[in-house]
Amino acid sequence: MKQTALDKKFDKIRAMEEAGQLKPAKGSRALRKLMANRLAMVGLVIFSVILLMSIFAPLITEHDPQKINLRAMLKPPSWDHLLGTDRTGRDVFARILYGGRISILVGLGSALMAAVIGVGIGCYTGYKGGWIDTLALRISEIFMSFPQIILVLLLVSIAGQSLMNLIIIFVLTGWAPMYRMARAKMLSLREEEYVQALRSFGVPTVKICYKHILPNALGPIMVNITLSTAMFILAEAGLSFLGLGVPLSVPTWGNILNVAQDLRVLQNNWWLWLPVGSVISLFVLSVNFIGDGLRDSTDPTLQG
Amino acid sequence: MLTFIIRRLLITIPMMLVISFLVYLGLELTPGDAVSHMIDPEAAARMTEEQFAEMREALGLNKTFLERYWIWLTNVVQGNFGHSLSGGVAISTIVLDRLPATLELSVFALVFSTLIGCVLGTLSALRRGSGTDNALTVVGMLGVSIPEFFFGLVAILIFALNLGWLPAGGRLLPGYETFFDRLPHIVLPGIVLSLMMTAGVMRYARSSMLDSLSREFIRTARAKGLPAWRINLIHGFRVALTPVVVLIGFRLPTLIGGSVIIEQVFQWPGIGSEFIGAVRGSDYPLVMMIALLSVFAVLMASLIVDVLTALIDPRVRLG
């Protein structure tokens, strides 16, 4: 049998163990596994850098993302304007930084709210079972039978465009998968013996659900929140690119890309769309790496 | 088998009814009288107030909500979807007009992504833990992280604007109607759409292949001394393929949804770009009808997939 890389690693660990060099492991096991995941750590670094740069945008650039300067239209990158200026002379670098605030808010905010609603419902109805469970299941099926972008666009056409509307629409279209996941988890967890013990002590149902069972399902919930964040950021970018997302007056990553629908801009003014497109890709990639790392470190069926 | 199909239909039909009811509710709540989108606007412009009142009576607009819903539903079932607000064209005409383009793009992407996804996924599973596997995992991750329209824009810039190899958009030029005249137009949107989807198929194929390689019959095949390619391709891949093929049925409707933005980027005259146009122009009847039809497609596809799986796997229909 050939010695694989894994075998060598084990041999090394065994040798260290025998020499008494191994320190006892500290902290949460899942956290340690996550820290050891190289891709997840790279993701976390990129994520933090982009997030912090957006939050502290005023400290990084002195340009105002909304200030129109007709004397400096479509200027290529220079020291004054790191990524050039757009058609109305607004600084693109500043717009990317400030745009990140809104884009990340939409992505993360929608994912968190969708999780609160989806998990909140799934946890309770999954535990209770009966007609309330069937009802919630049927409602989620209705939401899930629409292709997501079709449902989002349908709701946009009814509700109109605004930042708040977009977040509400994302929550409405995103809670169902979270609910399904929480419910599936509850169905297996509620058969555990500690739940029976709690029930026989007469602990109220709500307390059993949210205080005692829910923490055991946190792993997959976290994974779902990260992956949904990535999905919602992509959705916001796509919708705003079409001019149907956040109103064009608010800088977001998608709205900055909106100008690239014009083939002349596409060919002649690369600084208007290439940097922001790369930032979106990089950010979503980092969130996906974190999500995958979280899944690998919290899902016991993926050991080894 | 028959009981399984009946049981499955008993779930699908009420779902369809509930969703059609919600869509109708949406239609009633959005601005615009039902008269205005049921009649050709040309004719409506020449009508007097009295004729409108008569029309409302004839159309049953003075009836109760449920009765109106029933009339609308029977119309829809007969293929009479009402009229678009802009231009007053019958919605069924628009859909029939645009559907071939969307299907063309979707089938192209479906075939292409399934082929590449299966090959790369299998390769990744066979070389598990190697450099190839890691590289493919990262590439797959990139595939789900880059916004599809951004990828499309880069492709347009490189292959259409700078190299000039392929057209930047559109589907047909007047006078060019044979298959080979159209081929260059579908290459860019088709490949962009399929590469975005390949990532998903690849991951699925990889885990399915890993699963089948860990089964007992693979060990038996090895013990028999069969050559490695035969074990992997004939024994392993064939078993791994079944769930991947089943996945295709589920992908078809998502594909119709997924092509919405790509159609817009490449000016592809399909259902997706029509839908975006309708949303932009607040053409509610058209928006609602396309949404309803897409849900119908999703439910039908999942019904067919369920029946097919039940045919292949007896555990499903008995469970």
TrEMBL record, chain A:
Transmembrane segments: 39-60, 102-127, 139-158, 164-182, 221-250, 270-290
Entry superkingdom: Bacteria
Domain ABC transmembrane type-1, residue spans: 100-291
Subcellular location, record wording: Cell membrane
Pfam families assigned: BPD_transp_1, OppC_N
Alphabetical list of Gene3D superfamilies matching this protein: MetI-like
Membrane topology reported for the UniProt record: Multi-pass membrane protein
Alphabetical list of InterPro entries matching this protein: BP-dependent_transpt_permease (IPR050366), MetI-like (IPR000515), MetI-like_sf (IPR035906), OppC_N (IPR025966)
Listed GO biological process terms: peptide transport; protein transport; transmembrane transport
Principal location listed in the UniProt entry: membrane
Gene Ontology terms: cellular component: plasma membrane
Keyword entries, A-Z: Cell membrane, Membrane, Peptide transport, Protein transport, Transmembrane, Transmembrane helix, Transport
PANTHER family referenced in this protein's UniProt entry, alphabetically: D,D-DIPEPTIDE TRANSPORT SYSTEM PERMEASE PROTEIN DDPC-RELATED, OLIGOPEPTIDE TRANSPORT SYSTEM PERMEASE PROTEIN APPC
Family: Belongs to the binding-protein-dependent transport system permease family.
UniProt-recorded name of the protein: Stage 0 sporulation protein KC
Lineage, broadest ranks: Bacteria, Pseudomonadati, Pseudomonadota, Alphaproteobacteria, Rhodobacterales
From TrEMBL, chain B:
UniProt record, GO biological process: transmembrane transport
Transmembrane segments: 9-27, 105-126, 138-166, 186-205, 239-266, 286-312
Domain ABC transmembrane type-1: 99-305
Subcellular location(s) of the protein: Cell membrane
PANTHER family for the chain: DIPEPTIDE TRANSPORT SYSTEM PERMEASE PROTEIN DPPB-RELATED (PTHR43163)
Family of this protein: Belongs to the binding-protein-dependent transport system permease family.
Major subcellular location class: membrane
UniProt topology in membrane: Multi-pass membrane protein
Protein name in UniProt: Glutathione transport system permease protein GsiC
Source organism superkingdom: Bacteria
Entry's Gene Ontology cellular component terms: plasma membrane
CDD domains named in the record: TM_PBP2
Phylogenetic lineage: Bacteria, Pseudomonadati, Pseudomonadota, Alphaproteobacteria, Rhodobacterales
Keyword list, A-Z: Cell membrane, Membrane, Transmembrane, Transmembrane helix, Transport
Recorded coiled-coil stretches: none
InterPro entries given in the database record: BPD_transp_1_N (IPR045621), MetI-like (IPR000515), MetI-like_sf (IPR035906)
